[in-house]
Amino acid sequence: MTPFDLDLPARWKAGRWKVKIRDNETVEEPHVTILRGPDVWRVSLRDGHVMDGGSWKDIENEVRRTIQEPGNWAKLRKAWDVRFPQNPVEGDGDE
Amino acid sequence: MNSPVFILHRPGAGDGVFEAFRPKHLSSEKAVRRQLHLPGTGALWIATGRDGLRWMARGLVGTPRRRRRTLLLTEAVREGTLTLFTNWFDRVVVLPRSRLPGDELVEVFAREDRADFCIGGTIDLDLDVAVLLRGDLGIITAPLSDFLPSGDGTRPDFQEFAVVDSGRTLRFGGYEAAFDTVLYLHDAEFRRRIRDRRADGNPLGASVRRLRKQRGLRLDALGSLAKTVARIERGEVRRPRRATLEAVAERLGTTVEELGQF
What we know:
The structure holds two protein chains of two kinds. Helices cover 28% and strands 20% of the residues of chain A. The longest helix of chain A is centred in the C-terminal third of the chain and has 14 residues, at 70-83. A four-stranded antiparallel β-sheet of chain A has the order 1-2-3-4. Chain A is globular, with a radius of gyration of 13 Å. Chain A has helices spanning 10-14, 61-68, 70-83; strands spanning 4-5, 17-21, 31-36, 39-44. In chain A, strand 3 (31-36) and strand 4 form a beta hairpin. In chain B, 33% of the residues lie in helices and 20% in strands. Chain B has helices at residues 29-37, 49-59, 79-88, 102-109, 179-186, 188-197, 203-214, 226-233, 242-251; strands spanning 5-8, 24-26, 43-47, 69-73, 91-94, 98-99, 118-124, 129-134, 139-143, 161-164, 169-172, 175-178. Chain B has a five-stranded parallel β-sheet. In chain B, strands 6-7-8-9 form a four-stranded antiparallel β-sheet, with helices on one face. Chain B has a three-stranded antiparallel β-sheet with strand order 10-11-12. In chain B, a hairpin with a 4-residue loop joins strand 8 (129-134) and strand 9 (139-143). In chain B, helix 1 (29-37) crosses helix 2, helix 5 (179-186) crosses helix 6 and helix 7 (203-214) packs across helix 8. The A-B interface holds A 1-3, 18, 20, 22-28, 33, 35, 37-38, 40, 52-53, 81-87, 93-94 and B 104, 107-108, 111, 117, 146-154, 156, 165-169, 174-178, 180-181, 184-185, 194, 197, 210, 213-214, 216-220, 230, 262.
């Protein structure tokens, strides 16, 4: 299985936007990584807030809407749980 | 980049990758030799192409040995040439073959936070390490054991290494690793910066938990330490005894001093 890459509309991909869950994200709370060229934001999969002091205002509206669309949001959460069963989106993973 | 920067290349041959460093361009052996003889210490020298390498090698002949800091080579050189350069420079850095494309290098070099990007690297399968070059030309080394298989069974293929996403991601075949995670594990200063952005009410507990998760350890895998670690992580024990910290640190593969810094 390849790293999880959320499929964005072509226009945003052409603008260097990517939304992915990588394979070694072991240090942080469950999150999805949004990239635009060299810029990066991380969004918590638990409560949807932008981590590290960032803001949704910095992220293109269409990209945000694609991520927050309920079907896509569920896919992202499931993709995280598959990759990191020891640190699941819901709960501690140790219970 | 506060130190002077010199770039060696044939006239018209520069590709602009290093312009963010505002280098002085040297396009002849004579110009290189003249600059090498000038007093002053601390500089970044960038030798590009065979001409740049030759001018540097010949220009060093008879040059007084001074601290010249860093030489960056954009291509590999023979062992003898490398020995020559390391004799004159504090640091010699060779741009790895697996590196960002030119336009992305330009982007990274132009950023103030360039040190947080990986611009290239090599995988040493004999020593089981990844040697990664940061945007500020510093080196960070990560054991290959850092790259644990994903829960879905995806394993890194170290024979297929690439740096992607403008230096934010390391790719090993079908496996991708965040460069930030490597920095977090192996750069104390980077960890401190990230921690400063958080508002942890329980810094020791949060740190122990992050480290335990990074090691892929469930609480029930800690045996007799499980209850103690759980209490520390929940913040029920704010100042554990030294012996306790030593046991936890050993189990998590770190030192007592670093236990609260993840």
